[in-house]
Design goal:
134 residues, mainly beta, Immunoglobulin-like, five-stranded mixed beta sheet, four-stranded mixed beta sheet, 9 strands, globular, binds copper (II) ion
Length: 134
């Protein structure tokens, strides 16, 4: 239940942003102080926008697909070669998000424990990143 609520909330925010903000109150100041639901991992083609993300315990990472490309995101360990591509990987089975080849599709995973976790896309060897949950 909680996970679904987070995903919906993030989706709504993204929609508002994408539409250019028709709500007049958005102009006054920043969003500082508002409860942050986590971070969005934007996936453009076969690249994660960032290599490292930071959220709080109980918050989610939301994976947003910018292109009609299939992804499968799992948590696990990996090794990366000098070209930035994974040479080894081990899915730890914590979660598995199948992202369909749908532009604008979003799926999220809530992290309930603090720690540093690595995740990757099983399909694309260059999609590797870390999240610190504090
Ligand atoms: Cu991928």
């Amino acid at each position: 239940m909680r996970r679904t609520a987070v995903a919906v909330a993030i989706g709504s925010l993204a929609l508002v942003t994408a539409c250019g903000g028709s709500s007049g109150s958005a102009k006054s100041g920043s969003t500082t102080g508002a409860a942050k639901p986590g971070e969005t991992v934007n996936m453009t083609f076969t690249v994660f926008e960032k290599k490292a993300y930071a959220i709080k315990t109980g918050q989610a990472l939301t994976f947003a697909n910018a292109n009609p490309i299939t992804h499968e995101i799992v948590e696990g360990t990996y090794k990366v070669g000098p070209d930035g591509l994974r040479t080894e990987e081990k899915d730890d089975g914590a979660f598995n998000l199948k992202i369909p080849a749908t532009k604008g599709f979003m799926a999220s995973h809530t992290f309930d424990k603090a720690g540093t976790f690595t995740f990757f896309c099983t399909i694309h060897k260059g999609m590797n990143a870390t999240v610190v949950v504090s």
